[in-house]
């Protein structure tokens, strides 16, 4: 079952403190606790000192964000922090008058040495009470607070461990925490369990051959492989959509129970074929194309490769590693030239966006088609060249109209945009000329349109 955080039903610090200071004898389900007796042993102990607690109170009074607080409702009903114990404790201690905003240079003089409430002797120590307006600001401050219900302690601990000492979860880790069939499948693809008697700290060995090979290309293997798998599986199940983290999370929720064996077999089959096509023998060893490193670059290569196989009949052997190496060599050598400048920009600037993915796809697929000019559309009745074929023909022609007159003089018209030119069949389509890059030529409208044929 997918984990889904719920609203706590309260947001303000005033309401939170009513829960923290609630009478536990009335109803445990109304209680929020940061006390050692309630908080699980795996939670971090209180490590903030009074200065750090006071600075959090100062941040709240200044209206600064203090991050998400995540609670777990235990089987006994009491809610305890999975993440946020230090912050909740600081709020509690300030609210109860046990800590003050510190007298530090970086603190606005208006707030220095102020307490939410004063105890006996505080005035003599130089402490002063917050004003009624400041008290309202503190009490009305809206927390970003969520809670998990109906999960066991092991799951709550797993979430805590993934927070890595209180740091925010990465988007990949959030998806991994959702659980369910898809989560298990991604785990199956990218890692295996390390035996309990293995005292080494080595990364788990990926189960799927693609990810075993990627381990030599990609750093931070555990997280990177999972993110790559998320993106590729999403492309198989939800093709041509954006790969924003929210879209990937929706996939996890959609497939928490609905991931079928057919889905999994389709993914495995495509990943197997992709890995095979981009692997070559070096010194008797299978080596995956070293250019396959980052998630969105791999996605673009995967999409272009997938469409080639789906839409075209290819020659008996296509050397995909060499094609990719050539593309990347040209991209490095010509970083400020079209189309490589556009590809790099679409890769680095919001690379998850649908329009950026489409832009990279057109560039890379057209490059492949230019290098495989005999690739034949499976739809033999297709007369029009695809966008990627037209780009490939435009590139092959060096952006210049290819019409030649009776004296073999070539038309001088140059096209800075492929859309302004026409792609024409050399052997006419009506004469069974194939719709391939090899049988395509670039023509200006003057030399193409209006012809009787």
Automatic annotation (TrEMBL):
Domain of life per record: Bacteria
CDD domains linked: HNHc
Occurrences of domain GmrSD restriction endonucleases N-terminal (ranges): 37-177
Protein known as: DUF262 domain-containing protein
Limits of the HNH domain: 419-448
Endpoints of the signal sequence: none
Annotated PANTHER family: CHROMOSOME 16, WHOLE GENOME SHOTGUN SEQUENCE, DUF262 DOMAIN-CONTAINING PROTEIN
InterPro entries reported in the protein's UniProt record: GmrSD_N (IPR004919), HNH (IPR002711), HNH_nuc (IPR003615)
Coiled coil feature spans: none
Record-linked Gene3D superfamilies: 1.10.30.50
Pfam families: GmrSD_N (PF03235), HNH (PF01844)
GO MF annotations in UniProt: endonuclease activity; nucleic acid binding; zinc ion binding
């Amino acid at each position: 079952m997918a984990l889904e955080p719920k609203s706590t039903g309260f947001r303000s610090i005033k309401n939170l403190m009513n829960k923290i200071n609630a009478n536990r004898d009335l109803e445990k389900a109304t209680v929020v606790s940061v006390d050692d007796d309630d908080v699980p042993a795996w939670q971090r102990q209180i490590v903030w000192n009074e200065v750090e607690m006071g600075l959090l109170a100062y941040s709240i009074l200044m209206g600064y964000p203090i991050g998400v607080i995540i609670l777990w409702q235990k089987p006994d009903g009491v809610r305890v922090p999975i993440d946020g114990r230090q912050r909740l404790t600081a709020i509690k201690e300030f609210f109860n008058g046990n800590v003050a905003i510190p007298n530090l240079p970086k603190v606005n003089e208006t707030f220095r040495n102020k307490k939410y409430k004063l105890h006996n002797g505080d005035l003599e120590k130089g402490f002063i009470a917050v004003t009624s307006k400041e008290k309202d600001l503190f009490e009305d401050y809206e927390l970003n607070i969520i809670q998990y219900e109906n999960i066991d302690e092991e799951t709550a601990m797993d979430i805590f461990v993934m927070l890595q000492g209180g740091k925010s979860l990465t988007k990949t880790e959030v998806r991994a925490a959702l659980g369910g069939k898809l989560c298990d499948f991604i785990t199956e693809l990218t890692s295996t369990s390390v035996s309990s008697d293995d005292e080494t700290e080595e990364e788990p060995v990926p189960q799927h051959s693609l990810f075993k090979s990627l381990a030599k290309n990609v750093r931070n293997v555990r997280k990177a492989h999972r993110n790559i798998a998320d993106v590729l599986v999403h492309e198989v199940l939800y093709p041509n959509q954006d790969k924003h983290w929210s879209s990937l999370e929706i996939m996890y929720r959609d497939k928490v129970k609905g991931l079928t064996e057919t889905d999994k077999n389709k993914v495995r089959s495509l990943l197997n074929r992709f890995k095979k096509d981009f692997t070559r023998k070096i010194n008797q060893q299978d080596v995956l194309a070293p250019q396959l490193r980052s998630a969105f670059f791999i996605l673009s290569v995967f999409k272009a490769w997938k469409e080639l196989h789906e839409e075209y009949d290819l020659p008996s052997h296509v050397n995909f590693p060499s094609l990719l190496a050539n593309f990347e060599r040209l991209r490095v050598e010509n970083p400020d030239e079209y189309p490589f400048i556009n590809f790099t920009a679409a890769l680095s600037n919001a690379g998850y966006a649908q329009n950026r993915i489409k832009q990279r796809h057109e560039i890379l697929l057209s490059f492949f088609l230019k290098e495989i000019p005999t690739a034949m559309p499976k739809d033999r009745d297709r007369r029009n060249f695809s966008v990627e074929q037209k780009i490939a023909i435009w590139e092959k022609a060096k952006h210049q109209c290819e019409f030649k007159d009776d004296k073999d003089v070539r038309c001088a018209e140059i096209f800075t945009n492929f859309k302004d030119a026409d792609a024409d069949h050399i052997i006419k389509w009506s004469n069974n000329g194939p719709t391939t890059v090899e049988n395509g030529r670039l023509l200006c409208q003057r030399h193409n349109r209006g012809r009787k044929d």
